[in-house]
TrEMBL record:
Keyword Ligase attributed: no
Protein name as it appears in the record: Helix-turn-helix transcriptional regulator
A single GO molecular function term of this UniProt record: DNA binding
Alphabetical UniProt keywords: ATP-binding, Nucleotide-binding
Pfam family, one: GerE
Length: 921
């Protein structure tokens, strides 16, 4: 036989002769070197050469930072074990991550106490870590035998693979065909690795056989193995010289394909019992640590020489670490042992695993070996869970603490550990597990702090599970927690109050067991009031319940602090929702947007999944309110991706579909979408989401000209206004009531709008006030008010309200029989609505243009040389003889912008001067 090195090189040469694999892997490396990211999943049967290809791409990428890991069946139940091995060289870099991500990743690695980490939370941390690492140079992650990764590691790596784009990160996975445990990789680029063509297979066979090789025998081997390189090399090694020379018959059936593992196990069974025990210990020690394996084997009465037989058979290699010839060997050894044999191996490894850094693995070995309750083992698990929590590994924390509780004899200690396990389970994104753990706790066994923590966790779990009217129960549950905390834990009491406020903002009029004023009164009389941001937010909220105008100074101080001040990540994520709501009440759109962007950035960086989802949805709602529908679409897409990463009920999906966005888009089935969202929000107890469906209906009815219906819906919202939460509906109510010829209702709404808008003082509010005043003003004053509204709104981000101001102005001009004057604002409104993607408002505007005597075609994206809405508006004004400064003044844009778009118009239409525009438009 030839040397192993020669065999490996021959196999590598044959594999790299495959043009498809070579081209795909070379492309991946080239893109990664160029700073882009790419993923390939190498899929094929066992032994087909996936690992050799992985070796090849790693060797070709020596100029990159290469990270490698292989799935180990023996550690498949140990959360994040594979991920820890992949990133072990970068554990010290975790300090560069945000605290929440660092904590989640550490818990996942089993380095601190904590419950199993949510895969998405840990995924964000890993993505951040790899991206930070790639700054120092491109990174190549090689993941072998993916089907044997622990589930948490697999989910994290799949998440990262779907989200890398331009970081300089390459990921290559190998997956054995016929396995069903890698569904999370579906949709990633797959490269099927097939058997070698016959000529290459024969060349490989000849390269590994040193004696006589009968051509007929060679053909039988190649045919039976279907060109599988591992089967070829292993079979050639197991056959005798006479069999290879054709003097003896070959065994039947040949151990190929799925029978390779059985072949290895059969080979192991021929070894001495001591060698088999040594191999089992090695298979159960996933790090391949020779010292630990040697010590554990000695504890079982096995001498180091027992490994010689397996090493001579080339099933294992002993160097810096123990490496099995192929993961199939390790799988065969571990899976072929009895449960009692595996427990003895884990017990011996627990004794041998003495390094401080491996304390969590020692605890896992002890837990794997335990058969009955044992406080010493339970305490060891609690310590391991603590290490996981400190470094953010909540999945590991949950696993450790749950098992610790099972092994704890004392009832009170068991209740405390169950509560800690439930908290870790919830943090890891497993609310059902958290609820089951909470249900197993007797509250009387907890102290006051424990009871408060249980109530707060119960509230969060109810929401996460989407229980019927669950959100409606949250405020009262949090108030009960506040009472439990109030005596000894004032900081936790304040957190409970914030939870009650957030719950009330979500449940609104569907709230159960308490009401808004009771919460505000509790906030006002809380003990230990200080000058912190938390105190300011609490006071601003309580004051806004009593009087929004009086609360404005407090609101501005609190929200400005959140938007631009020195705020820790934890404080921001705790207070952002209340701050955003307070901004909405005073039309502070820029501050609201700043808080949301800041929150989303922190949540993304820290891996705060629940916050990220809600913040992105709130940001999408903000963009929709401003009329920036395309930006809202992108955000909603990300929200839905987050939804798919955490447990969701059908109702929870519905309330995250933005009915206000549906109203703007005005598709034929919009009422049905809004109706389903309303039903879902009602069932969940989310009164605020019910009101969002009303906003969607108002927008839809206004766009379609159903003014009476819009006025009725808007009036109901204002009449039940939740502490000024829906002041922004007042302009819609005024428009709808005026067009429905209910000027009394419109006048009452205007009085309230004057109070709210002037109190706010923001350009957005004042622009909407002028627009609303114009609708009710005498003809002599209306035009100036419309122009003022357009000018004021033009300085804001509220493009939707600006487009509607142009529309209302144009409609007013047409009713004044000034049809020619009406065309300019109507053209601008039409262009803006088409640009925004608001077809119903565009059609309403188009009909107004028709009434002025101008035909306005619908946009046809297939028309050659078609212009964008803004280009079309500028071209039309240029055609009518307006100069660039005049167009800029009319459209509230800069002259340079006009010039830029006109040059594009000329190029698209093939004209050279303004005079030619009249001919082609």
């Amino acid at each position: 036989m030839r040397s192993a090195t020669h065999v490996s090189r021959s196999l590598l040469a044959v594999l790299l002769g495959r043009a498809t694999e070579r081209a795909a892997l070379e492309t991946l490396l080239d893109r990664v070197r160029a700073g882009m990211s790419q993923v390939i999943v190498l899929r094929g049967e066992a032994g087909i050469g996936k690992t050799a290809l992985l070796d090849a791409v790693a060797e070709a990428g020596t100029d990159l930072q290469v990270l490698r890991v292989a799935g180990v069946e023996a550690e498949a139940e140990f959360p994040f074990a594979a991920l820890h091995r992949l990133l072990v060289a970068y554990v010290n870099d975790l300090d560069g991550l945000p605290a929440t991500q660092r904590q989640a990743l550490s818990v996942a690695f089993g380095l601190t106490d904590g419950l199993a980490a949510d895969r998405f939370l840990v995924s964000l941390a890993v993505l951040s870590l790899l991206a930070r690492t790639a700054v120092r140079g491109p990174v190549l992650c090689c993941v072998d035998d993916t089907q044997w990764l622990d589930r948490e590691s697999l989910n994290v790596l799949a998440f990262v693979a779907r989200r890398v784009h331009a970081e300089g990160i390459g990921l290559v996975f190998t997956v054995r065909t016929g396995t069903d445990d890698v569904a999370v990789l579906e949709g990633l680029p797959v490269l099927m690795v097939e058997g070698l063509p016959q000529p290459d297979a024969l060349e490989l066979l000849r390269s590994v056989v040193s004696g006589v090789l009968d051509p007929k025998v060679a053909g039988q081997i190649v045919t039976a193995t279907r060109g599988n390189p591992l089967a070829i090399t292993d079979l050639s090694a197991s056959l005798t010289g006479n069999q290879l020379a054709g003097a003896l018959l070959l065994p039947e059936p040949l151990p190929v394909g799925n029978r390779l593992e059985a072949h290895y196990l059969q080979q192991v069974r021929r070894f001495a019992s001591a060698t088999q025990r040594w191999l089992l210990v090695a298979a159960a020690e996933p790090q391949g640590d020779i010292g630990y394996v040697t010590a554990a084997a000695a504890d079982l009465g096995v001498r180091p020489e027992a490994a010689d037989e397996a090493e001579r058979a080339k099933l294992v290699t002993l160097a810096a670490e123990i490496r099995f010839r192929h993961p199939l060997v390790r799988s065969a050894v571990y899976g072929g042992a009895t449960s009692s044999e595996r427990r003895r191996a884990h017990q011996a490894l627990a004794v041998a695993t003495t390094r401080t850094a491996d304390a969590d693995r020692r605890a896992w070995h002890r837990a794997s070996a335990a058969l009955q309750p044992d406080e010493e083992v339970a305490a060891d698990l609690v310590l391991a869970a603590g290490r996981a929590a400190n470094r953010g590994g909540y999945a590991a924390r949950a696993t450790f603490l749950t098992r610790a509780a099972e092994l704890t004899p004392d009832e009170r200690a068991r209740a405390g550990r169950l509560l800690a396990a439930a908290d870790a389970a919830f943090t890891s994104g497993a609310p059902t597990q958290a609820q089951m753990l909470l249900d197993a706790i007797d509250p009387d066994l907890l102290d006051a702090t424990g009871q408060g923590n249980r109530l707060m966790l119960r509230a969060r779990t109810i929401v996460a599970l989407g229980a019927e009217r669950g959100m409606a129960q949250v405020p009262a549950t949090c108030l009960a927690a506040y009472e439990a905390f109030r005596g000894d834990r004032p900081e936790l009491a304040r957190t409970a109050l914030l939870g009650a406020i957030d719950g009330s903002l979500a449940s609104e009029y569907l709230i159960e067991g308490t009401d808004l004023r009771r919460i505000a009164e509790t906030v006002t009389r809380r003990p230990g009031r200080g000058e912190t941001l938390t105190d300011l937010v609490l006071d601003a909220f309580a004051m806004s319940v009593v009087s929004v105008p009086d609360a404005v100074p407090l609101i501005r101080r609190a929200t400005t602090w959140l938007a631009t001040g020195e705020v820790s990540d934890t404080v921001l994520l705790t207070h952002y929702l209340t701050g955003v709501t307070l901004c909405t009440r005073i039309w502070a759109d820029r501050t609201r947007e700043a808080i949301l962007h800041r929150t989303a950035a922190v949540a993304r960086r820290t891996g705060a999944l629940q916050v990220l989802e809600i913040a992105l949805f709130a940001l999408a709602t903000h963009e929709t309110t401003l009329g920036r529908l395309e930006a809202a679409d992108e955000l909603l897409l990300e929200v839905h991706q987050l939804r798919s990463a955490v447990a969701s009920t059908p109702y929870m999906w519905e309330v995250f579909r933005s009915p206000e966005q549906v109203g703007w888009r005005a598709l034929d089935d919009a009422p049905e979408h809004i109706g389903r969202a309303r039903q879902a929000a009602t069932w969940l107890g989310m009164g605020a989401s019910v009101c969002l469906t009303d906003l969607g209906s108002i927008i839809l009815d206004l766009a379609r000209g159903n003014y009476a219906a819009a006025a009725t819906t808007a009036a109901a919202l204002i009449e039940d206004d939740y502490a000024g939460a829906y002041a922004r509906v007042l302009p819609d109510l005024i428009e709808a009531a005026v067009y429905a010829e209910d000027r009394d209702r419109a006048g009452q709404a205007l009085e309230l709008l004057i109070e709210r808008a002037t109190t706010s003082g923001s350009p957005w509010a004042l622009g909407l006030l002028d627009r609303s005043r114009a609708l009710l003003a005498p003809d002599s004053a209306a035009e100036d008010l419309f122009r003022s509204a357009i000018a004021t709104l033009g300085d804001t981000a509220a493009v939707g309200d600006l487009a509607r101001a142009y529309l209302l102005y144009g409609e007013w001009l047409r009713r004044q029989r000034r049809r020619r004057d009406a065309r300019d604002p109507l053209r601008t409104a039409l262009a803006m609505f088409e640009e925004l993607g608001a077809p119903a408002f565009a059609e309403r505007t188009r009909q107004e243009l028709l009434a002025t005597g101008e035909t306005a075609r619908k946009r046809n994206p297939e028309t050659a040389g078609d212009l964008t809405p803004q280009e079309a508006a500028i071209a039309a004004l240029a055609r009518d003889g307006l100069t660039n400064p005049e167009i800029a003044e009319r459209l509230f844009i800069s002259t340079s912008t006009v010039d830029y778009h006109l040059r594009k118009v000329f190029r698209k239409l093939g004209v050279e001067s303004r005079r030619q525009l009249g001919r082609v438009l």
